[in-house]
Amino acid sequence: MKKNVAVILAGGVGTRLGLTKPKQFYKVAGKMVVEHTIDAFEKNPHIEEIAIVANPMLIDDFEEIILRNHWKKVQRLLRGGKERYHSSLSAVQAYENQDVNLIFHDAVRPLVSQAIINNVCEALHTHQAVDVVIPSSDTIIETDGDYIVSIPDRQRLRRGQTPQAFDLQVISRAYELALKDPNFHVTDDCGVVKNYVPDVPIYIVAGEESNIKLTYKEDTYLLDKLFQLRNITPPIESATDAKAFKDKVAVIFGGSYGIGKEIADMLQGLGVRVHVFSRKTGHVDVADCAAVRNALQQVAEKEGQIHYVINTAGVLHRQALVDMSYDTIYNDVHVNLLGAIHVLTEAYPYLKDTHGSALLFTSSSYTRGRALYSIYSSTKAAIVNMVQALAQEWDNDGIRINCINPMRTNTPMRRQNFGIEPEESLLSPQVVAEASLHTLQSEYTGQIIDVVRR
Known about the structure:
By secondary structure, the chain is an alpha/beta fold. Helices cover 40% and strands 20% of the residues. The protein has helices spanning 33-42, 59-69, 84-94, 114-123, 168-178, 189-196, 217-232, 236-239, 242-245, 258-269, 289-303, 326-354, 374-393, 412-418, 429-441; strands at 3-10, 27-28, 31-32, 49-54, 74-79, 100-106, 129-135, 142-144, 147-150, 158-167, 203-206, 249-253, 273-277, 308-311, 357-361, 400-406, 448-451. The strands form four sheets. The chain has a seven-stranded mixed beta sheet, sandwiched between helices. Mean pLDDT is 91; it is low at 233-240.
């Protein structure tokens, strides 16, 4: 059986993205885009070897990335060229005369699923050329200048993705003929096969809408959300490895009731040594920086280390700004915003030592301020911005920091402000706690995790 070689095409520089660095180095969910991509093929059992084709100016950068990630399947680091086909051709020539399948994939499609890779490899058992496609949701229009000349039947149209996979002899023959054509011009490898070895049928495998390519700046926001949806939704029983939590130490501020208490109970059930502080438990007000510092010092002296620091403390006053007293405004800002700042600044040295994780909480109102929520919404928006900023500041220290954004949740704070509501319209604190544990266990950082009812 032929060996399957994944060829990661990372030769681009990403000018359309508008960044100062190549788009494959853009960070999302705690890693570079290209790292997520290679991880997907590294862990797939049908892939025996990986080759990276990089821009010659970035070879040193990729060498460092390979060493840092300890990938076992990455065997070759090849030089690409000016055009996309130069990168594919580099791999074709590198494996010349070997009995292999080449599976080409864009480095900037980091959300390729194991199902897609599996299906492509399975198709290679009976086909010599395979493409990954998805249906077109839009009507496609053929134009000539400023006028429509044809509107093809959308039912027969598909949008191409990667991977694209080939028997080496097929793609090698296609390029051999293509390079002799003075009018040679195609945008992908399936196009080369279709145009120059048309007798070889190209089999199609179903792709996924989430298998997007990072091309434009808007794609960065979509990637953030897609990573959140893909990795925080599985049931806690199937996704949480108890061994990863066992004997860890967690400090929870605001953990005497509601979501904080649920997190504490779940962590304790997984073998975590949990320390809870709140105004009721330990008389710690997060608005008091000295009290936060003393609480963390107390835990560090007892346990020797701290792996997780979680802040669920918060207050909500539904009131028009002009009707709020300055004492109330001052208190709300100090608890909701300065409290989080106190927790993070004091926790920093402990989390740096353990390469630990911090977790904060926001509210759906952070995306758009609402009447009667001006102080609450603005402090929650600030929490989101702070998490995103600190994820970059603390990345080299190995500290992960994320933020949970739950929809309306059945907590004491909500009941105090809204009274009795239909329980079926609210999230349970347990569901939010499960998402929180997934986030603590993940490698992601700088993520805003939306938790919604399903």
